[in-house]
Each structure stands twice: as structure tokens, then as C-alpha cells.
Design goal:
mainly beta, globular
Length: about 130
Amino acid sequence: QVQLRESGGGLVQAGGSLRLSCAASGSTFSNYAMGWFRQAPGKEREFVAAISDGGERTYYGDSVKGRFTISRDNAKNTLYLQINSLRSEDTATYYCAAYTSLGNPWYPSEASQEYPYWGQGTQVTVSS
């Protein structure tokens, strides 16, 4: 099964940018559809973005459309989340997650329970 490890979080001023990375190991990365979620203190985990196993198709949560970009490099076994125009409400722990695509047609899943594999998270804090 795949193991996931996020990096790239930190403290950034409002309006700034960050690029989060999620390194995958232990299995063939291109066999997995991927997603990013986030969880702020006292709030439920929120879907951020999803990407198909080949990277051709993406899907975003309404709160991040136009500011966040999900991408992947299957040759490097890495998933990315480019975050621009950061706002204080983007402060959260960001998690990457995966599920086996099994060659099936991709559909964007916002449901965290459909992703059995998770990283440990990386903290993003936006100061105003």
C-alpha cells in the first residue's frame, strides 16, 4: 500500500503563496487517484481538491477555486498543491489522501471516507 508524507507548510502572510508537496512511496503512484483535504481547529475535515491518477483531470472545492492548483508528477511520485492569495481562513492542517483507481473511470470524490490512505499532515498558518 502507498505511504504518504506531506511537506511545505509554514507561516505565511495573507496574500502570500505556498506550495505543498506529498511524497508517495511503497506502491505505484500512478495507480492512485489523489486528493487534498484540510482541517482547521474545531472544524470538520474539508475537501480541497482532487486529481485523477494520470493527472489529466482535476476538481476543486468551492472555497478554493481560482486560488489553489492541484497537480502531480508521477515520475517523481509526488502530488502538489499550489496555494495562492492566502487568507486567514486557509489556516489549517493540510492532508494528502489516496485511493486505488484500479483503472476505473475517475470521478472526483469529496468524501474523506473514500480515501483509505492518508499522510500525517502539514500545518499552514496564515497571518493577517
